[in-house]
Amino acid sequence: MPARRDFVEQGTALEAPKVSETLYRSIVEMLPNAIVIIQPDGSITAANSQTLDLFGLKSLSDFLGRNVFDFILPEERDRVESDLGRVAMSEKLHNQEYRLLRKDRTPFWAEVSGYLIPGTGEKPKGILVTARDISKRKSMEENLRNLSVTDELTGLYNRRGFSLAAEQELKHAHRTKADLVLLFYDMDKLKAINDNYGHAEGDEALKAAAAALRSTFRASDIIARWGGDEFTVLALDVPKGSISVLQHRFDETLERLNGAMGMRYHISFSVGMARCDFEHPLMLQEMLRIADAAMYRKKLGKRIR
């Protein structure tokens, strides 16, 4: 009987590594994430089948033996190399976001974690990396960011978007001593358009006005629907005297627009201006205040006439 017990115990001990390896492989294949084992030099030595879907591969033979950096966007490689270096020093990598490359070189966002696999002695067996595709989440985040800074009706910046972008440009202008001009536009008689023809027609008028601003100013200029019937433009690198040329171009664009669309009403604006230059540096709120006051004076003058 003792001999039998020794045999069973010995047999169990001998079979244990096989059972552990089978169990390990089963668990790895059941996990939803891609799992990859790489060496400190980046060479790929093992992967589960989910890796095929993640990288758009037909066979693991297209993956094993390759260097992991073949599947990482060049702009991300320095950061990934630094992070893997820390993992090799026994630090853990938790939920880092990188842009990776599929086999067809299409970039995608992935959430990646990494752990050092201990070996015998000082030499580790490698680094275990888990990854999952987060492209949909990143796309949703980008859409939300765009919504938070974009006016839904016109596609221009909204007030928040304008403020963020304009503040950055003003900082740059103060450093480089560039000239900026802020224009504050108020659409004339939008309320009358809404009252007489309906809010849907008023929306069309606002979209037409936004299109006129886009066609007048450069892509580098910051154009926004400030709110309601108000629009703002921060025109960059505008020499003194040239703003009248821009305004004349805008007036011509409106004239063509009014003629081409055959509207039952006329789109026009009252506009105020504030300039920021090296001799007279201004902050954004001060420029807005000056331009708004100038616009109001123009609008008041139209009413008096």
UniProtKB/TrEMBL annotation:
It is an enzyme of class 3 (hydrolase). InterPro entries: Biofilm_reg_signaling, GGDEF_dom, Nucleotide_cyclase, PAC, PAS, PAS-assoc_C, PAS-like_dom_sf, Rev_trsase/Diguanyl_cyclase. Residues 178-305 form the GGDEF domain. The keyword Hydrolase applies. Residues 20-91 form the PAS domain. Its EC number is 3.1.4.52. This is Cyclic di-GMP phosphodiesterase PdeR. Pfam families: GGDEF, PAS_9.
